[in-house]
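Input (Peroxinectin):
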Amino acid sequence: MGISMFFSTTQLVILSVLFFSNSLAQECSAKTTHDVLCGLPEVVDAASTGTINFKPVHLVQGYEACKGDSAGKYRTADGTCNNVFNHGSANRPPRRLLPNAYDDGVNSPRTRDTRGAALPAATNVSRTVHPMKDVNKRFTIMLMQWGQFIDHDLTGFPISSEVDRSIKCCGPNGEALNFRPDRECFPILLTPEDAGVRFVGNCMEFARSVAARDPAGKKIIPREQVNSVTSFMDASMVYGSSEELQRELREETVGGQPGFLMKVSPSDLLPRNPEEDICIHRPGEFCFLAGDTRVNEQPGLATIHTVFVRLHNRIARELDLLRPNDTDEEIFQLTRKILIAIIQNIHYNEWLPIIIGRRTMREFGIQTGSRSQYVASVDPRITNAFSTAAFRFGHSLIPRQFVIGGRNRPLRELFNRPDELFNNFNDVLQSLVSPLRTQGAQTFDRFFTGEVTGHLFEPENNGKPSRGLDLVALNIQRGRDHGLPPYNKFRQFCGLPKLTRFDQLPADVALVFEQVYNSPDDIDLFSGIMSEPREPGQLVGGTLACLLGNQFHALKYGDRFYFETDRMPEGFTDDQLADIRRMTLAHVCCQVKAVLKVQSRAFEIPNNSNGFELCSDLRDAFIDLTLFQNF
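Output:
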């Protein structure tokens, strides 16, 4: 049942613009101290006037407004001054669509259901509702990989730690420790079905996300988390979310100043990370350094990072020839601006329509192909529901294995092993975009490969019970840590009917939910959205499409530099924009000279209607940088 079945045309026009602020009045009236958008729009009849008037948005006490250039041509590294009140900049709390569901309304994780009973263990929900099932369908692994790449551009919530080390919430043999809440522990206590069977002991490590603090250093009450990266789709995973990291990632000029090229290592791979112990690598090889610290998680992720660093350097070298009077800084910033636009075009024009469908794109006003207006009143910050549940849907797409070096490699062998790229970069990229039919992404559904539900970051165990982690259980526990309201609340937020009985769900889903939850009102958001029947023309269900549409609406209209903006100097000329729109992911993969051929729709398995094209042909269709010669 689609979103549009519950609203009139007029309501849909309004909601597509205003979903982001649906519950902010409640938050503002509660007089919380966290940084929320308290200027709500005055809604008029959009169908009759075609306009929506916004009240002024005010800076929340404690945070500084932009002190720099809020009308410049280029973005700052940390996202400041994109919005005059610095919404969306790095190291800010996320926004909430609904009031929190902490047990005490302030800080304690959600652990009780509507009857006051304990919620089911997260591993129990994972094992019962989200068992292992491997089904391949029509999409390449790149569909999953792009989602992870973009997620690391938008979200980065640090985990609590003690001085110079991570918090230990479980003992060395997997036993639960007597822990104090002030140590920020929230371990997953295993049921007898899991303890000693799927996992060692009866405790899985879990530390709470870092609590956000105001500029004076005081914890924000009620508890909020902190997004350490910029909320904007600004390629921060490539360039970093701070001036310091951005400088570290750039080649130096002869005079020691940051140059226009990004650093690379031999074989044109990512540069060496000076921290040697953050990944597993063979002698003579090393961990990679990138704009995001998670780059080393698995080879596919490091591969797409490498693709865009290579693309940056190709564009920068050509611009340097075309614009000989520019400084290195000017060449770097223009290259960065173009690369961000290419990423945004791929995301909104190729990837997102597959996920939420063309109809939902229209309902939220996020289709591409025409100029868009920047709305300063739109709060672009990442929502807690998006980062903690909705944008984790791609975990269902993760395959059981990758083809590397001509053989199938189980994913458990590849976690934290970026060294696989030293001899197999081209092979990994080819397997991401043009695999055999049996090597595509998993189907989106409530099922997950056992590689991530039992063997995540698993050390070698010689067939003994796993010391790995359960990604689904971690997602559920993280939602409870953040005080996310349950699934039913978000159904109502999205205009979908509240579930009052389990049998309102598909029979197979109702059966498993009844085994773990006492009421539909108790279903965790992540499990709920992963178990929805998909809507026609899209990959996901109604609530998930709503939450994704909501976020990408905010990231389009709340970003002063969104690539199709009608503003200058933030935007592009018509000719430049037309050329950027031609740049598909297939074009990008060919430009870095790592594959020989690729299908035109790189997120879909090649077939008769999506045939291969030779990269030698696509390279000739590279973006026309002469259009930027006098820009």
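The chain has two domains: 3-158+209-628, 159-208.
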